[in-house]
Amino acid sequence: MSDIKTVGVAGAGTMGTGIAIVAARAGLRTIVFDQRQEALDRAREQTAAFLTKSEARGKLPPGAATQTLERWSATTEIANLANCDIVIEAIFEDLDTKHHLFQQLDEVCNESTLFASNTSTISITEIAGGSGRPDRFVGMHFCLPAQLMKLVEISPGMSTSQQSFERAWAFAEAMGQKPVKTQDTPGFILNYFLIPFNNDAIRLVEQGVAAPSDIDLAIKTALGYPMGPLELLDLVGMDTQKLLCEAMYELTHEPRAACPPLVRRMIAAGRLGKKTGHGFHMYRDTKMFGA
Questions:
Q1: Which end of the chain has the least Cβ crowding within 10 Å, N or C?
Q2: Any idea what the CATH number is for the domain that residue 119 is in?
Q3: Whether 79 and 116 share a structural domain
Q4: Are residues 128 and 241 located together in one domain of the fold?
Q5: What digits encode the pLDDT tens for the residues 241-278?
Q6: Of 2, 54, 120, 198, which is the active-site residue?
Q7: Do 39 and 164 belong to one domain?
Q8: Continuous segment of H or E residues that includes residue 228
Q9: Is 99 a catalytic residue?
C-alpha cells in the first residue's frame, strides 16, 4: 500500500511524459512541470493521443482516457509542485542542472515530499548531495517507453533512508510497475549493457556492415527483442544518446560507451530520430511510440 497520491514530474520530454502517463493512468493526481509551455502543450497532446489509442485498442476501459486526462495537469511554476508526495526528475543528464532543479524543489516542497531521479547514468548519491534532503532521495529509473514497459530500477544513494526506499518501492508497485533494486553504480543494470550495445549497432552502420533495417531485423528475429537497437535509438533521440554516452564514458572510461562520430553528424544534420521524422529510419508519424 502506497501513501503517495499526488505525483510531480519535472521535465516534459519523452521520459517525463511517459512517467506522467503511468502515474495518471494508475489513478494518481499528476502534475507535470516544465519551464517551456510548448513542451507541456506537446506532452498533453501526446498523452491524449496515446490514451485515446489505448482505449480504442481495448487496453483501457471505455471512458478511461478522459478520466486519466482529468488527473493530469501542467505548470510552468515550480511552486505548484509544493504539495506533491513525490517529485520525479526527468530532465537531461547534467549534474549541475539537476542540482539547481532540486534546490528549487527543496525550497518549495513539503518536508515529507520524496525526491526521485530518473537518471540512467549519474550517481544517485551525487545528485542527492545537492538536493537538500539526501535521506529522502532515491533513484527511480523507468524503462523507455515508460508507458509501455513495466520495469523500474530503484537505487538508494548512500544517505537514502530505508523508509524512503520502501516508499518508492511501494509507489512503483501501486502504479503496476515491476521494481528491481540496484546499487548506485554507473548505468545501473539496463544502461550498463544497453549504451555500449546500442553504440555497437551504430558502429555497424558506420562501418557499412549492414543497413539499419537489417540490423534491427536480425536482433529482433534472433534475440527476440520487441524493438531493434536502431529503432530504440530513434525513439530515445540522438541528442539524448550523445548525453548518455558522454555521462557514461566520463564515469567508466569504457571505450564502447564513447559516443560514435555518426551520432554527432546526425545531430548536426537534424536527424534526431522519430521526433524529427528522420533518424536511422524515416517516420511519417512523429507522435509518441505505441499504445
A1: N
A2: 3.40.50.720
A3: yes
A4: no
A5: 998 999 899 889 999 999 999 999 999 999 999 989 99
A6: 120
A7: yes
A8: none
A9: no
Residue 186 in any domain: the answer is no
Instruction: For residue 270, count other CB atoms closer than 10 A to its CB.
Output: 10
Is 164 one of the catalytic residues?
no
- The answer to whether residues 1 and 170 touch, using CB atoms and an 8 Å cutoff, is yes
Find the catalytic residue in 118, 164, 191, 198: 191
Q: Is a pLDDT exceeding 60 seen at residue 290?
A: no
Q: Are residues 29 and 116 in the same domain?
A: yes
Which of 153, 155, 198, 231 is catalytic? The answer is: 153
Catalytic residue flag (residue 191)? yes
Band of pLDDT at residue 186, cut at 50, 70 and 90: confident
Decide if 290 is inside a domain: no
What are phi and psi for residue 288, nearest 5 degrees? Answer: -55, 145
Residue 90 domain boundaries: 6-181
CATH number, residue 255: 1.10.1040.10
Burial (CB count within 10 angstroms: exposed 0-12, middle 13-18, buried 19+), residue 151: middle
Catalytic residue among 141, 155, 198, 199: 141
Whole-angstrom Cα distance, residue 255 to residue 72?
42
